């Protein structure tokens, strides 16, 4: 009976500590591993082919995303300019109907 109580008392501690060890284990890459970025001794600017390709893909994605945003902004500007022209035409029509400006 006493051994059962001791086992139950320590069971949560061992389960909790083993989960912590697994969840906080850092992923370590050694120099020269694929993706580590330091396969050559030239510092931060060097890298293996995978790292360079990955950076290129990220840069391409960012450029495409910015291009899409720019096109959307340009479309909104064109729409706003068209709306302003329509409003100007409407104001001109109203002023012609009333006989010009009355100051």
Automatic annotation (TrEMBL):
Keyword Cell cycle recorded: no
Superkingdom per UniProt: Eukaryota
Localisation: Mitochondrion
Single annotated GO MF: ATPase inhibitor activity
The entry's keywords: Coiled coil, Mitochondrion
Entries under Gene3D superfamilies matching the protein: Single helix bin (1.20.5.500)
Record has Mitochondrion as a keyword: yes
Coiled coil ranges: 70-97
Compositional bias per record (Basic and acidic residues), positions renumbered to this chain: 42-51
Chain spans, region Disordered: 24-51
UniProt-listed Pfam families: IATP (PF04568)
Family that this chain belongs to: Belongs to the ATPase inhibitor family.
Protein name: ATPase inhibitor, mitochondrial
Species, as recorded: Rhizodiscina lignyota
């Amino acid at each position: 009976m006493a051994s059962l109580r001791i086992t139950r008392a320590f069971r949560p501690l061992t389960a909790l500590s083993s989960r912590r060890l697994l969840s906080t284990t850092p992923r370590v890459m050694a120099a020269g591993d694929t993706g580590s970025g330091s396969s050559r001794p030239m510092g931060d600017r060097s890298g293996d082919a995978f790292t360079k390709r990955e950076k290129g893909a990220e840069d391409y994605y960012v450029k495409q995303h910015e291009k899409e945003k720019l096109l959307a902004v340009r479309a909104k500007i064109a729409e706003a300019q068209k709306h302003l022209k329509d409003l100007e035409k409407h104001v001109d029509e109203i002023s012609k109907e009333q006989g010009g400006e009355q100051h």
